[in-house]
Amino acid sequence: MNGTAVWQNLSARAQQYFNAAAVGDPKAYEEGAIEISGELASLINPINRRYAGQSFRIMGGQMAGRLTLGARRSAPPWRLDDRLLVVPIAKHETAQCTFVLASDGRFGSSWNRDFRPLFDSLDLMFEDVAVWGSLQGWHYVGYAREADPATFAADVSGLIPDETASGALSGWWLGDGIAMSFRRFLTHDETRPPYIELLANSAQRARHVADLLAGQLTSTWLLDRGDTVPFLQG
Q: What is the C-alpha to C-alpha distance for residues 63 and 58, in angstroms, rounded to an integer?
């Protein structure tokens, strides 16, 4: 399967990002790849055949950095106390946790053979990565811990939910020069409310939004420091 065909099941935005950002040699992954049997087979094996060995850079969020996909023989699946099966499905260049896929389709982190769901599905993780890819050069406004996304969206005119990149666990609201994500930290479980992160396409607009939400944001230190989403080729 060539690089373009690998991502053709995703949105046009995601196809554009991954066709530019993803690199990989599936053949180099075959030696350690694992063929799952039983309950996880119908979920993991098609994913492994399509994505194993694909590597790409994530431009922001809790998973920022380079991620390489594929279930490996050296990291077999395990079953949780609630009988949910999870299997390591990706390796991150710097994160200390393991990234796993559960038998119910959710993608998440694992610190000690546990499961902390981050996205409702692997495809939603890809779509989240693609939104970050579309915001290269944007300015960070700030974030709020354990907040209600709808409440924030109501206070920022023009934000509309992006259904392609949104689920119950994470998602995006996009507007004219403004973007807001909601997600969970890698260490959070699904009972914790998400945190909110806002970005703007200019320093002036970022400061305006920060002033508008003064008192609601937990921190604006990235804005104060002048940080922006990096460029893929930077």
A: 7
